[in-house]
Amino acid sequence: MFYDFSQKKPALFLAPMADVTNPAFRFVAHQRGADFTYTEMIHSDGFNHGDPYAKNRGFSIDEIPYGIQIVGNSAESISKAAAGLENLFKPAAKVIDINMGCPSPPITKTGCGAALMARDFSAANHPASIVRSVCDAAMFPVTAKIRIYKDDEKTLRLAKSIENAGAAAITVHGRTRDQMYSGVANWEIAAKIKKELSIPVILNGDIVDEKSLQTAMDLTNCDGYMIGRGTIGNPFLFQKLNSYLKNGELETISMPDEFEARVSDLNQYLILLKRYDLLPHVNVRAHSQWFTKGLPYSRAMRLKINDLHNDVKIRSFSDEELTVEREALGFEILNIFNEYADKCRKEYCEQV
C-alpha cells in the first residue's frame, strides 16, 4: 500500500491540480501537514513522446513520498507512461493515480479525464480495463480518481469494477462531469461506496475548513479526505485541519498570525521555485495573488501586484530571462505582503 491508512488520524491529501501542485507547492503543503500529495496531471501521450513537462514538474523536493497522476485516453498509452514515470521518479514516488474525473473541455474533448467514464462498461478502454492494464504494467500500486454519475447505482458499479481490476484505492469527487466545479458535492454517494468496497476510499470536493471536514467525516467515514481548491494559495489550511483533528476544536489564531503564516509560506514557495529552476514554468504573479485570498487588504494587494512590471513586454523569453524577471517580481510581491502584514498587526494591536 502506498499510504498507511491504519493510522488513527484520517489522512489528509493534497489533490492533484493543474498549474498548482508543482514540486515547490507540494513541499510547502507537506510542511504544513498534508499527509500525501500528488503531481499535476501528466499527459501520457506527451510523456511517451518526450515532452519535458513531467521531468520539470514531476519530481519531489527532498524525496518526500508522493503520487504521480496520469491523464490519458487509452490503456496502452497510460500503461506505457506509468512504467516510464515510476522508473523516472522512484523511490520517492509511491503510487500511480489515473485521472478519470477532470471535466475540463480541453481534456475531455481528447477522450481523457471524465470522458473515460462515458465509455460503456464492456468497452476495451473502459476505466476498469485501463486500471487492470496499468496494474499489469506498473510496479507501483495503482489508484483512480473518479467523478460520479447522476445514477448512484451506476457510480457504485464503476467503483466496484475499478476495485475488482486491482486498484489499491479510489478517490471520489462528488460531482458529475457536467457540474464541473459548480453546485454542491454529493458526499452521500462516497459513503455508499465506502460501505461497498474493501479498498480505501478517499473523498474529494467541498472540504474547505474544519467544519466541512468534520461533516464529511461524520457522513462518509472515508479513509482519507482530499483537499483541492481550498489549499490554493493557502497550504496553511492543512495545519489548521490537523490541529482540529488532534485537539477536536478550532485553532485559535489571530488574523495577523495567520497573515504572517501565509507570507512565510509564500516566501518559502518563491525560494523553492528559484532553487529548483521552476520559475520559468510558474506564473508568479497569479500564484502570489492566490495567497491574498481571505486576507485583510486582499483587493489592495492584488491591485498593487497587478501594477508590478507592467512595462515589461513579454516576448520569447529564454528560461534564464524568465527566471531573472520572475525572481525580481517575487521579491517585490513579498514586499507588498510584508507591508500589509505589518499594517494588519498594528491595527490588531490597537483593537486589543
Automatic annotation (TrEMBL):
GO molecular function: flavin adenine dinucleotide binding; tRNA dihydrouridine synthase activity
Calcium recorded as keyword: no
Keywords carried by this UniProt record: Flavoprotein, FMN, Oxidoreductase, tRNA processing
Lineage summary: Archaea, Methanobacteriati, Methanobacteriota, Stenosarchaea group, Methanomicrobia
Keyword check for Flavoprotein: yes
InterPro entries: Aldolase_TIM (IPR013785), DUS-like_FMN-bd (IPR035587), DUS_fam (IPR001269), tRNA_hU_synthase_CS (IPR018517)
SUPFAM superfamilies per UniProt: FMN-linked oxidoreductases
Pfam families: Dus
Organism for this UniProt entry: Methanimicrococcus hongohii
EC number: 1.3.1.-
Residues of the DUS-like FMN-binding domain: 14-319
Name of the protein this chain belongs to: tRNA-dihydrouridine synthase B
Cofactor annotation: FMN
